[in-house]
Amino acid sequence: MQEMLGTTGLILNEPLLTERGRRGRCGISLPRRDVESFPIDESITGGGPDFPDLSEVEVVRHYTRLSTWNFGVDTGLYPLGSCTMKYNPKINERQASLPGFAGAHPLLPAALSQGILKLMYDLQRYLAEVTRMDAVTVQPAAGAHGELTGMLVFHAYHKSKGASRSKIIVPDTAHGTNPASAALCGYRPVNVKSNEHGVLSPETIAEVMDEDTAGIMVTNPNTLGFFEENIRQIADIVHAKGGLVYADGANMNAIMGIVGMGDIGADVLHLNLHKTFSTPHGGGGPGSGPVCVKKHLEPFLPVPRVIEKDGRYLFSEDFPQSIGKLHGFHGNVGVMVRAYSYILSLGPELKKVSQLAVLNANYIKEKLKGYLHLPYDRPCMHECVFTDKDQAADKITTLDIAKRLIDYGFHPPTIYFPLVVHGAIMIEPTETESKEDIDIFIEALKEVILEAKEHPERLHEAPQLPKVRRLDEITAARHPCLTCG
Ligand SMILES: *Cc1c(COP(=O)(O)O)cnc(C)c1O
Predict the structure, then answer these.
(1) 20 to 30 Å CA-CA from 29: which of 42, 198, 220, 223?
(2) Confidence at 108, pLDDT banded by 50, 70, 90
(3) Is 175 in the pocket of ligand 1 (CB under 6 A)?
(4) Which pLDDT does position 208 carry in this prediction?
(5) Do residues 402 and 385 lie in contact, with contact meaning Cβ atoms separated by under 8 Å?
(6) What is the C-alpha to C-alpha distance for residues 445 and 408, in angstroms, rounded to an integer?
(7) Closest atom of ligand 1 relative to the 142 alpha carbon
């Protein structure tokens, strides 16, 4: 079939702007010149870049068409587990784009930045309240950056006690960034296995915890989507040997306003504002990974810290035990504005966010049980994990199922993660999806599973409908072709 411009069914073909350009075409109109024209000396400028000549409408259409090739939470359900790809209220975008926030220069003095400093100060208090921790820094720019901050705080704490410990306990259900952050800080991660219920047993921790171990990093809820219900006992075991408890709170979407991590033994906790607190996640940034600590670790938080003095807000470096600076400027402040706006607009309803997220995940789990193998058949938090075990006889894999879902108009769930589950299919619907939309997703997945038996070739050859068919993933990664249609 001849390639046509514009739409071919629902599939758009779009040449590059450089292919479309025609000499002399112009997208701007300038006022009549009232000075002599002066030719540019090309021996100095080198001729300049060879931009294509295009009309305004050609450029607008080009980018508008390209924008429709994207799939996002504003397009449809985006059930990537471990990511909290949820719909975020547009009101929070609006606040973040207020010119006073969006246009603030990073070097503005405190006297001209009172609003933004107060916002950061108050946000830290709100996050402390939500997590039941004592002090917060909004300096780290991502979850993993928060983990590194936490590990440096661990190190500074032990050093202040005159001890240097070399190990950190990291369960197999931790996020992959946890052992990486520990190692980056010079600690040796000690891997421990979760039990048959997908959570940690206190006995397992008691076996490995010793006085050369700085503490434990627990992702809670963990990457299997379960709440570490023995966390308080585990914290007691770690504390009894002088260690600290790091809680990875990137999965806070399941427990906001329900579990006070500070009340059940966490000494340090990071949050992902770009998952839970209203910043769209997945675009590559910016993010924000605030770190919350208990009182005894507050002196070690990074500087500068936002403080309040006589009703004024300022950055202070006056914390001699601080681990120092981890982020040059707060260029990601828009993420904080969204979180602030989200928390203030929801108030006590934050709890409902988590209740609905958990309800939706359990609904999906129950409805798909019997269609897909459920490795841990027990109530989950905000995400549920299936596998492709029951499709193995038909030579259908998790990848085939994920690709076929695309033909049904859905972004696939997270696949092959968490690593502890072979052939994992991890679904996180989030709280903002309606029952009707979740039902359509469930029906689509059920149909794919039935097809796996009757027409396995449809899964092997999926996706058929989108612009790009199934890629050879290795070639696509090693030799990406960024201009092919
Ligand atoms: C996403 C995630 C992280 C890492 O956060 P980044 O902002 O991507 O660095 C850490 N832990 C858990 C449990 C996560 O889900």
Answers:
(1) 42
(2) very high
(3) yes
(4) 98
(5) no
(6) 9
(7) 7
Three-class SS state of 425: strand
* pLDDT (0 to 100) of residue 366: 98
Q: Which residues lie closer than 8 Å to 135 by C-beta, 6 or more apart?
A: 124, 128, 292, 293, 294, 295, 297, 298, 301
Could you read off the pLDDT of 254-265 as tens digits, one per residue? 999 999 999 999
Residue nearest to atom 6 of ligand 1 (CA): 143
Q: Which of 380, 397, 379 is nearest to 388 (CA)?
A: 397
Alpha carbon of 250 to ligand 1 centroid (Å): 6
pLDDT of residue 483: 67
Q: What are the pLDDT digits (tens) for 131-166?
A: 999 999 999 999 999 999 999 999 999 999 998 999
338: closest CA among 91, 73, 74? 91
Rounded CA-CA distance 398/375 in Å is 14
Which one, of 85, 62, 104, 32, lies nearest residue 337 by Cα? 104
Residue range 447-465, pLDDT digits in tens? 999 999 999 999 999 999 8
Q: What's the gap in Å between 227 CA and the centre of ligand 1?
A: 16
All domains of the chain in start order, with CATH: 91-348 (3.40.640.10), 351-478 (3.90.1150.10)
The pairing of beta strand 291-293 with beta strand 268-271: antiparallel
CA angle centred on 24, ends 18 and 30, rounded to 5°: 110
Ligand 1: centre distance to CA 461 (Å):
33
* Beta-bridge mates of residue 244: 215
Please tell me the total number of residues recorded for the chain in this structure: 485
- CB-side neighbour CA atoms (13 Å) of 188: 8
DSSP 319-387: -TT------S--TTHHHHHHHHHHHHHHGGGHHHHHHHHHHHHHHHHHHHBTTBB-SS-S--SS-EEEE
CA geometry: angle 72, 124, 224, nearest 5 deg: 50
Classified as helix, coil or strand, 292 is strand
pLDDT > 80? residue 237: yes
**pTM exceeds 0.85:** yes
Is the model's pLDDT at 4 over the cut of 80? no
Q: How many CA atoms lie within 13 A of 385 on its CB side?
A: 23
Residue owning the nearest CA to atom 14 of ligand 1: 250
> Which structure tokens are listed for 419?
């690593």
pLDDT in tens, 339-368: 999 999 999 999 999 999 999 999 999 999
How wide is the angle at C-alpha 432 spanned by C-alphas 231 and 146, nearest 5°? 45
* Residue 408 near residue 440 (C-beta atoms within 8 A): no
Compute the distance between CA of residue 419 and CA of residue 415 in angstroms, rounded to an integer: 10
Per-residue model confidence (pLDDT) at position 2: 46
Q: Which residues lie below 8 Å from residue 428, measured CB to CB, with a gap of 6+?
A: 79, 80, 81, 82, 83, 84, 85, 225, 357, 361, 382, 383, 413, 414
